[in-house]
């Protein structure tokens, strides 16, 4: 076995050196020395990836892993998707940089047109970005220029990225702490309907969204105050907090409440968009009643290239007009705005992601995977909750089902056991007790079935 092994991306894992092997360790040591603590939180040596295809990735030691992370949900078409690679390669021989609004390029025009079509009648305007956080910043800026209001309602457990504006509306333990004095005081935090850990500490058979009523008591009080909010930002399914699925009527009710009050609804679909939950946008599953005013997308939309976008209505996006500089300069820009390589890759990825077969595959394999995860609850009392939407899934581990006490040490141990068997998943949840799965949308049923077998063994062993 060598690191030159041919892959088609549908293989199962094979471990030849216990990970992290010596090459991974050495490369990680060099990286850590040069990059430092900002990006290296853990003392544990990670595995270092060398090559990937489809749902399979190889490390420097020649181990083959089944990747159920897809690089935090980015690789919607798998590692090194050939069609995306071809599009990027062709663009790299044609044009590799534009000149902002002075001289834009053809591929940008095509991508913006494609994204606008995906936004439909209500979200027909597009601004591009390179990361999810950057697109979130654009949404916050747009809401501000449209309403003149600076404050934003956001939810407990929300994750919107790590730039300052995005951190202001993020609520993830510890993330903003070192910079708390620099982070703008924008957010009005209200409870998210996390059924398994009800923010009102209730255990109903069926969530009646009482927390949304209490959230809007807070919002209404703030609306009567001197510094009222102009917008609400929300994830349709909270990703980093561990695939927290709100009840189905949450988004329509939130939409109605925001509309009644003239608040802009920003839907952060960085994780859930591009087909991750089945439909292209997660809100579509819920219907027109949930259509947002602004929609943020990123991650999977590029099929592996760094691109993100903000979609919005004509009226909202036109609010920028009054801020054009006297010189004619645009009020928003960045050197790599609409980078041609990213635009070309995303255009091709979107073509694949919008094929009906892609959605059918996500819905079919997602249902099979969810059923497999649920079946683990029978024999493994530590599996407190199973949550899934398409190919975004998670299991929440607890010390016992009655108390629901989070089990972060067990979570780390199970993730370690999965890694040793060549299955990659990642931790999530505000208590570090959730195992998250966001595999490539092209993953096979056999690969998902193998994951369940390995996961069951890991859970039983611990
Ligand atoms: C819902 C959501 N919004 C925004 C972001 C930030 O995206 P990025 O890491 O590309 O800045 C993330 C990243 O995980 C996310 O899950």
Throw out a few tags for this protein.
single chain; 462 residues; alpha/beta; Aspartate Aminotransferase, domain 1; Aspartate Aminotransferase, domain 2; 2 domains; seven-stranded mixed beta sheet; four-stranded mixed beta sheet; 14 helices; globular; binds pyridoxal-5'-phosphate
Let me know the number of strands: 15
Order of helices and strands: HEEEHHHEHEHEHEHEHEEHHHEEHEEEH
The global form is globular
* Ligand list: pyridoxal-5'-phosphate
- Second-tier CATH architecture of the largest domain: 3-Layer(aba) Sandwich
Oligomer type: single chain
Which structural class matches the secondary elements? alpha/beta
Biggest sheet layout: 7 strands, mixed
Q: How confident overall, as mean pLDDT?
A: 96
């Amino acid at each position: 076995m060598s690191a030159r092994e041919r892959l088609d991306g549908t293989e199962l894992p094979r471990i030849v050196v216990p990970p992290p092997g010596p090459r991974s360790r050495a490369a990680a040591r060099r990286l850590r020395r040069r990059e430092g603590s900002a990006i290296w939180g853990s003392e544990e040596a990670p595995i270092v990836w060398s090559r990937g295809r489809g749902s399979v990735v190889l490390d420097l030691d020649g181990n083959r892993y089944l990747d159920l992370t897809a690089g935090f949900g980015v690789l919607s078409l798998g590692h090194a998707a050939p069609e995306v690679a071809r599009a990027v390669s062709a663009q790299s021989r044609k044009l590799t940089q534009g000149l902002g609004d002075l001289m834009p390029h053809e591929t940008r025009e095509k991508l913006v047109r494609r994204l606008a079509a995906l936004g439909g009648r209500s979200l027909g305007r597009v601004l591009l970005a390179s990361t999810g956080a950057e697109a979130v910043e654009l949404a916050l800026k747009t809401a501000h220029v449209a309403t003149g209001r600076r404050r934003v309602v956001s939810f407990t457990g929300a994750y919107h990225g790590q730039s300052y504006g995005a951190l202001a509306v993020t609520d993830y333990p510890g993330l903003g702490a070192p910079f708390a004095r620099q982070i703008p005081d924008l957010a009005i935090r209200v409870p998210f309907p996390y059924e398994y850990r009800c923010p009102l500490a209730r255990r109903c058979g069926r969530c009646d969204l009482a927390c949304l009523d209490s959230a809007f008591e807070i919002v209404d009080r703030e609306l009567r105050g001197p510094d009222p909010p102009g917008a609400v930002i929300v994830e349709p399914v909270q990703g980093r907090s561990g695939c927290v699925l709100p009840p189905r009527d949450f988004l329509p009710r939130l939409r109605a409440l925001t509309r009644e009050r003239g608040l802009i609804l920003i839907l952060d679909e960085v994780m859930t968009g591009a087909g991750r939950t089945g439909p292209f946008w997660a809100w579509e599953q819920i219907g027109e009643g949930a259509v947002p005013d602004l929609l943020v997308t990123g991650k999977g939309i590029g099929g592996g290239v760094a691109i993100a976008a903000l979609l919005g209505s004509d009226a909202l996006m036109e609010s920028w007009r009054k801020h054009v500089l006297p010189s004619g300069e645009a009020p928003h820009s960045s050197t790599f705005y609409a980078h041609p390589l990213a635009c070309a890759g995303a255009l091709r990825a979107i073509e694949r992601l919008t094929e009906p077969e892609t959605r059918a595959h996500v819905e079919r394999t997602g249902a099979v995977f969810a059923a497999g995860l649920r079946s683990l609850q029978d024999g493994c009392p530590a599996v407190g909750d199973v949550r899934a939407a398409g190919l975004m899934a998670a299991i929440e581990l607890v010390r016992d089902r009655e108390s629901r006490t989070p089990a972060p040490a067990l979570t780390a141990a199970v993730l370690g056991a999965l890694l040793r068997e060549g299955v990659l998943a990642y931790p999530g949840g505000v208590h570090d007790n959730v195992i998250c799965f966001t595999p490539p949308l092209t993953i096979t049923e056999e690969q998902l079935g193998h994951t369940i077998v390995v996961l069951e063994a890991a859970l039983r062993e611990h």
